[in-house]
């Protein structure tokens, strides 16, 4: 178990740089992530009050929003060219 924990922390450490650069070049991803957190929070609150929200609706809306954001990023990249690298 400890070995798996060390591997997981190591992978997160290695992935933090590329993910940070990606989010830095795509600020709309931050807004999308915030919207996902708000949806999950509202579903948890509704669940606490006894209202059942089918998880398929949540997953479908998140997948659709991520798909649309991917299309937006591709359109921006085609219009403006690739994002600058850190070496520039």
Structural class by helix and strand composition: mainly alpha
Q: Could you tell me the radius of gyration in angstroms? A: 18 Å
Domain count, please report it.
1
Q: What is the H-and-E element order?
A: HHH
Largest sheet: none
Number of helices: 3
Name the average pLDDT: 88
Overall, the morphology is: flat
Strand content: under 5%
Number of strands: 0
Taking pLDDT < 50 over at least 5 consecutive residues as the criterion, the unreliable ranges are none
Report the helical percentage.
Answer: over 70%
Distance between the termini: 42 Å
Could you please describe the fold and organization of this structure?
With 88 residues, the protein is mainly alpha-helical. It has one domain (2-80). It has helices spanning 2-25, 27-48, 55-80. The radius of gyration is 18 Å and the shape is flat. The mean pLDDT is 88.
Keywords:
mainly alpha
List the helices and strands and how they pair.
Elements: H1 2-25, H2 27-48, H3 55-80
Helix pairs in contact: 2-3
């Amino acid at each position: 178990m400890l070995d798996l924990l060390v591997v997981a922390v190591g992978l997160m450490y290695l992935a933090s740089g590329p993910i940070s650069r990606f989010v830095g070049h795509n600020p709309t991803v931050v807004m999308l992530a915030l919207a996902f957190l708000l949806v999950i929070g509202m579903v948890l609150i509704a669940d606490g009050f006894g209202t059942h929200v089918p998880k398929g609706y949540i997953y479908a809306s998140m997948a659709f929003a991520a798909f649309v954001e991917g299309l937006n990023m591709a359109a921006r990249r085609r219009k403006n060219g690739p994002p600058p690298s850190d070496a520039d």
